[in-house]
Predict the structure.
Amino acid sequence: MTDPADDLTIRPFADEDWPQVWAVIEPVLRAGETFPFSPELDEEQAYHLWVTIPTATWIAEDEHQGLVGSYYLKPNQPCLGDHVCNCGYIVAESARGRGIGGALCRHSQRMAPQFGFRAMQYNLVVATNESAIRTWQRNGMTVVGRLPGAFRHPIHGHVDALIMYRSLPHRHDPLPE
């Protein structure tokens, strides 16, 4: 059986990709169910958060749907904590359930050491986002903390958020299979 994510091309973001990236991330941000950013965020603010601030941003394309997802990679903390990265992933609603989030996660884990990151931390994984939690755990992330009621979900009210973490290999060490 082939992995549907095998048909993906994941490449660095280019400025001409922004209209398509915005079309994918805007509905997710507006829904307010998985990211702590304001649902009223405008396009310029979103560009700043998704492209300008991060160390790097990538997009995922497939030959049938075009742009189906994106992620960013950035230091989780400044200075003495900047060896641990943080990522944000978004998959187009029409492309969910095909393994794209997992493919983006694996790609980020391969890329992060190339930027000098030694670990990966997700600070606020919304507990109601069960498919993402399963995906991150399948890709080596471990829940290291639970923040009670830390996320104001528009449907479920105050819900817990998880902190997830994993060490990464040094720049030239392979990731475990």
The longest strand covers residues 142-153. The beta strands are 8-12, 56-62, 66-75, 84-91, 119-126, 142-153, 157-167. The chain has four helices and seven strands.
